[in-house]
Design goal:
Blueprint lengths: L2 H17 L6 E2 L5 E2 H20 L21 H19 L4 E2 L6 E2 L2 H21 L7 H16 L15 E6 L9 E7 L2 E6 L6 E5 L1 H8 L11 E4 L1 H9 L4
Parallel strand pairs: 5-8
Antiparallel strand pairs: 1-2, 3-4, 5-6, 6-7, 8-9
Helix pairs in contact: 1-3, 1-4, 2-3, 2-4, 5-6
GO molecular function: metal ion binding
């Protein structure tokens, strides 16, 4: 999977979903939003990331200063597509390994492509749920989305209401899709209250099995902890607590 190509393709799929939809359709998984706001959020975020990369920013850029941060009324989907391409072009021009600001600390510029890719995959799920249509995503891409989310969590401090998992407890996530191998299994634990993880198979306080697409939606709280598409083994309360203490 080439992340830059995947970002452009995922952005296209989101645009196709939104092109014929009523922009005022409520998005239940993003309370208070309608599809018009979801489109703006994704496109503006891509342009914000492109600005950070292009300017080689060492500090947070005010998203309100991003050029063309609102879609034109006559072609919002085209604006959305251009937003992803601006980020890909910015990373190519700056250099994928050049360090820039991110909300997890300085990272290579290419970090933003993967981050924005999975912003689009998850918000496409939001749009699909809002429109009542199936959410389809390649298993390998969904599995990478789970890994990317866990990477973000490792940079967070201990939640104010306590660790997502007690020290010594392990959460095992297992994607049931064929062909993923080690990339489809995750062992998540706490180290001094902070999230740590690795690919692997093992017993834990709780194990959650499902397709990579369903696991991605579950860890990002797009489907309930007890959704019938998930098989939860062991301590279901540990799984629910994990979700409660790892909001997006």
């Amino acid at each position: 999977m080439n992340p830059a190509d995947a970002l452009v393709d995922e952005n296209r799929r989101l645009g196709e979903l939104l092109a014929t939809a009523d922009p005022e359709t409520p998005v239940a998984t993003c309370p208070g939003w309608v599809l018009r706001q979801l489109l703006t959020h994704v496109g503006r975020g891509d342009r914000w990331a492109a600005t950070i990369v292009r300017e080689r920013a060492e500090e947070r850029v005010d998203i309100r200063t991003v050029p063309d941060g609102k879609p034109p009324a006559d072609d919002p989907v085209g604006w959305l597509a251009d937003s992803a391409r601006l980020l890909v072009d910015a990373v190519a021009a700056t250099g994928p390994d050049v360090p820039v600001w991110t909300f997890t600390g300085p990272k290579p510029a290419a970090w933003w492509i993967r981050r924005r890719l999975h912003e689009s995959t998850v918000h496409r799920a939001d749009a699909a749920l809002a429109l009542g249509v199936p959410y389809e995503i390649e298993a390998a891409l969904a599995a990478d989305g789970v890994s990317e989310w866990l990477d973000i969590l490792t940079a967070r401090p201990v939640p104010a209401d306590g660790p997502a998992l007690p020290d010594g407890a392990t959460l095992h996530l297992h994607a049931t899709d064929d062909g993923l191998g080690a990339d489809g299994e995750w062992l998540v634990r706490s180290e001094d209250g902070r999230v740590a993880w690795e690919h692997g198979h093992g017993k834990g306080a709780a194990a959650v099995r499902g397709s990579a697409a369903d696991l991605l939606q579950a860890v990002l709280r797009r489907i309930p902890a007890d959704d019938p598409r998930l098989q939860v083994l062991g301590d279901a309360a540990a799984w629910r607590t994990w979700l409660e203490r790892t909001p997006f």
